[in-house]
Write a structure and sequence with these properties.
Arc Repressor Mutant, subunit A, alpha+beta, binds zinc ion, Dna Ligase, domain 1, 6 helices
Length: 165
């Protein structure tokens, strides 16, 4: 299996918390290194992503970015997602639904697990530092090397429980 196919499920390498100015610089040099221009549209997308504290879909991102820069097209949003993932600014969160979710990784510096409501869009990221140890230890025990891992807890949120009542 190619390494790249695992990228979506894997966690970012552990990095210390970064400040917004450093992140902006890292983003612009990342673009430059790939021969991509630093455009107003890309910066608008970056700005929205940087401010996000909850999970979002490509459509959520499109709606929000349009409020900042109405010239940004849906295609630009979809083309930007792999760039943002490559830069380590966001991570794809697959909760087994048709829609893909993304989360800003700037405030995360340990392994993240997800608590997912089965009935609505609520996804909560939780620190799960023990998972780093667990995955490595388990793989090593079976003479394997850890490629990626995920932990998702499925639940019913209070709002959804109340609705059924
Ligand atoms: Zn719910």
């Amino acid at each position: 299996m190619k390494k790249t196919t695992l990228a979506s499920a894997s966690q970012p390498p552990q990095t210390p918390p970064r400040n917004p100015e450093e992140i902006r610089k890292a983003f612009t040099s990342f673009l430059a290194a790939r021969g991509l221009r630093v455009t107003g549209q890309r910066l608008a997308i970056f700005k929205v992503v940087e401010a996000r504290t909850t999970h979002f879909t490509a459509e959520d991102l499109f709606d929000e970015v349009r409020r900042v820069d109405s010239s940004v097209s849906r295609a630009t949003i979809y083309r930007s997602l792999p760039i943002l993932i490559g830069n380590g600014l966001i991570r794809e969160v697959d909760v087994g639904r048709e829609q893909k979710y993304y989360v800003n990784t700037l405030r995360q510096n340990t392994f993240q697990a997800q608590l997912v409501c089965q009935d609505c869009d609520k996804i909560i990221e939780v620190d799960a530092p023990f998972m780093d140890w667990y995955g490595k230890t388990l793989a090593a025990k079976h003479d394997m090397e850890l490629a990626s891992q995920r932990l998702q807890v499925l639940a019913h949120c209070r709002d959804c429980i109340e609705k059924i009542k």
